[in-house]
Amino acid sequence: MGESGENVGAMCRAPSLVFYRLETSRYALYALAGALESRRRFDELPRHFPHDEKDLLRQLDAIEAAGRRAVVAVSFPTACRDAIAKTIRSCQLRVVSGELRRKGSQVPSSKVAGSETPGSHVLGLRRSGSQDAAAAFPDPMWSAATCRRFQSADMSAHSKATPERRDTHSTSEHRQNACATSEHEQDARATRPFFIAGGAHPTALPEDALNLGFDLVAIGEGEATFVELVERFDQGADCESGDWRSIDFRSVAGIAWLDAEGRCVVNPARAPIDLDDYAPSPTRLQRFGHIEITRGCPFGCAFCQTSHIHGRRPRHRSVERVRDYVERMRRAGIRDVRFIAPDAFGYGSPDGRRLNVDALEELLGRVREAAGPEGRVYFGTFPSEVRPEHVTHETLALVRRYARNDLLVVGAQAGSDRLLEACGRGHTVEDVYAAVGRIRAAGLGASVDFIFGLPGETEEDRRQTARVMNDLAEMGARIHAHSFMPLPQTRFASGAPGRAEGEIREAANRLLSSGDLYGNWESQEGLARAFRRLGAEGAGG
Questions:
Q1: pTM for this predicted structure
Q2: Rounded CA gap, 3 and 282, in Å?
Q3: Distance between CA atoms of residues 70 and 77, nearest Å
Q4: Contact at 8 Å (CB) between 455 and 492?
Q5: Residue 50: its pLDDT value, please?
Q6: Rounded to an integer, what distance in angstroms lies between the CA atom of residue 413 and that of residue 480?
Q7: What is the secondary structure of 60-78 as a DSSP string?
């Protein structure tokens, strides 16, 4: 292999890892970065944590200028789907512009960036600019499958990729073109970022994420999958061409990808991980976040994706590992300790339904000790909540003894027993009243979650929910209002977008004016309408 070929191989085997951290998925990406600390040799790989699109593009430019190759990991929920699509298009346009300039071609800016319609204009692939784009991407995955992904990038035109929508060049012709490209073009191709999607939306609709421009989707829990992928990138497995897209991913469990014909291939699922095997964030980089103590939820609420992603059997991080992490936070000067769990009071429970008060006390006692006298422990509040039936005198006593928070977040979701049963919540309205009463008697505040416009909601349900919200506010609670969003892969995925109507809207406006209600329920109504079709596609997944 010549000097240029050796450089290509070196870039292939020396990835720079980019964790694009939206605020909504910051700690999911920290978990991926923390998982890499299970392999000491990965400590030598550069890692970047851009916080917005501008920062991401700047980081990619710097990585390419250093002669390295970027692997970009992105985790996102359905609500952020369009924003992520825009960012991926910006990244891919940056690549196309650079490669067309290297080839001496003019970037078809009027066809690429002149339109504000998402998806229809990207790279000008459905117009005369497509030949220039295909020339810039001579390899099959980029000139056929990826071009087709760009064509279907927005929700209004969202549809499954089909062979009929392929570019006019055949796959065999592209392979011939790839072999005929110059060493300079091979170097350029080898520096393109490799995009990996994960999180709630890509897990539910992997083909949609691939159609946005991602090269791979990690389905479900991403730690073990990401470690295996980085090992392959770092070793340059099957990468003689200098392009990571030539790696054979068929043996990697827990991913989805597009084959050379643009078909979505979903590999066998990966087994659930042991939380103790991976750090919750990259502690050796001195980046710390909230500590995930439990995964999995037995209830499988009809509006929630948690059980679909992490399963219904709870898994808990051991007290010893949590304590160790808190001690590292303390040494790094981090004072506040918060936790991530579907139900904070469910820690240590074998099934997520029965309380394990002894396990809770051991956890909180050891954490309180590890945090030191200056540390502040917050439990049962953001970013977690507690189930109403788990608010007991015993659990409240633990919060008062070990935690600093002056309120608890309670998941009620509806004020109608009929709706609660339809959702599979596993508790009653009376449980909500009892929980708020106990919380207030213990001298704590209560923030109670409600979801407006759940599928099947009737006028009587709205009347009951409005009454319950008013009652709870009179008891001293604040209402945290949400609008129902039809999330892919849930039982309610095909439901109509939620909207506060009738007595619920009247009660919400009244409580909002008095300061007894807060939340983004009105903006969520618009979001719900925007991706209703995506939710319907994921129904029954």
A1: 0.81
A2: 36
A3: 23
A4: yes
A5: 96
A6: 10
A7: HHHHHHTT-EEEEEEE--G
